[in-house]
Specification:
By secondary structure, the protein is an alpha/beta fold. The protein contains ten helices and nine strands. The model has no long low-confidence stretch (mean pLDDT 93).
Length: 293
């Protein structure tokens, strides 16, 4: 594990500033890509990055390609001063060496890109079906930021597990020279997965949102008891239905392809993923499930 640096991170807003900041540092580079409004979940990624690299780059960019015409791009929370404070050494939650915080004109200097990454089959199901083009937009900006930051390792949260699978496949299929690491989901004490969108929840909605983690726990328990995949999904959905949330999907998928698992998997493991809207806020969560050997 490397030693934490001292002082505030270098903030780069342009490509030239980023190039200078990176050129001033040597050794293994780790990158964490975010859309800002940082919370303890993001900073867990930064801590893991610090353990894996001599220097840590955090990108903060609200990517318009990931938002559909009816989604919350304009109201997505933004707090760059607060984010920089959280990424300063001395904060117990995490620190960074370089923060790349560009505007859309820096990331997309010619306007919306004509050529984009296609997420393939992973981008057409679940999050991809509910939010058409979302994963294409995510992969496009991830690939651009990988080129701009040139990291040895890139860390992504497992809370957005479908995105993690898509990024991992893109890197493998397109021979991108970077190691992709998935970092476990960070949760509040009550089990709610940390998300920038949690700030939209009222106290009553937050209580209702706990159905997502409880549903996942019910699905895990069913698998551990030997239930088949249909029963695992049903156990999770029962909890969500009882809480009165607007369930989008309950999926049981292969961790490498995000393809549905219709029967007991040979590997004995799968990913249980759920999405539901609570009030006006759409939330996602997931968990690994395992069957007894």
């Amino acid at each position: 594990m490397t030693e934490a640096r001292t002082g505030a991170p270098t903030v780069a807003r342009t490509r030239a500033e980023l190039e200078r900041a990176l050129a001033a540092r040597t050794g293994r580079r780790a990158v964490v890509m975010t859309m800002g409004a940082l919370h303890a979940g993001h900073l867990a990624l930064v801590r893991e990055a610090r353990a894996r690299g001599e220097h840590v780059v955090v990108t903060i960019f609200v990517n318009p390609l990931q938002f559909g015409p009816t989604e919350d791009l304009d109201r997505y929370p933004r707090d760059l001063p607060g984010d920089l404070a959280r990424l300063t050494a001395g904060d117990l939650l995490g620190d960074a060496d370089v923060v790349f915080a560009p505007g859309p004109d820096v990331v997309y200097p010619d306007g919306p890109p004509l050529v984009r990454v296609d997420a393939g089959p992973v981008g057409t199901v679940y999050e991809g079906a509910t939010r058409p083009g979302h994963l294409d937009g995510a992969l496009t900006v991830v690939l651009k930021l990988l080129h701009l930051t040139a990291p040895d390792v890139a860390l992504f949260g497992r809370k957005d597990v479908q995105q993690l699978v898509a990024v991992s496949r893109m890197v493998r299929d397109l021979d991108v020279p970077v190691e992709v690491v998935g970092v476990p989901t960070v949760r509040d004490a009550d089990g709610l997965a940390l998300s920038s969108r949690n700030v939209y929840l009222s106290a009553a909605e937050r209580e209702q949102a706990l159905a997502l983690s409880r549903g996942l726990a019910a699905g895990r328990a069913a698998a551990e008891a030997g239930a088949d995949p249909a029963a695992v999904r049903a156990a999770a959905r029962t909890v969500l239905d009882a809480a009165g949330v607007d369930t989008d999907y309950v999926a049981l998928v292969d961790a490498g392809t995000f393809a549905d698992v219709p029967e007991l998997p040979a590997a004995g493991t799968a990913v249980l993923a759920v999405a539901a809207t609570v009030g006006a806020t759409r939330l996602i969560d997931n968990s690994d499930v395992r069957w007894p050997r």
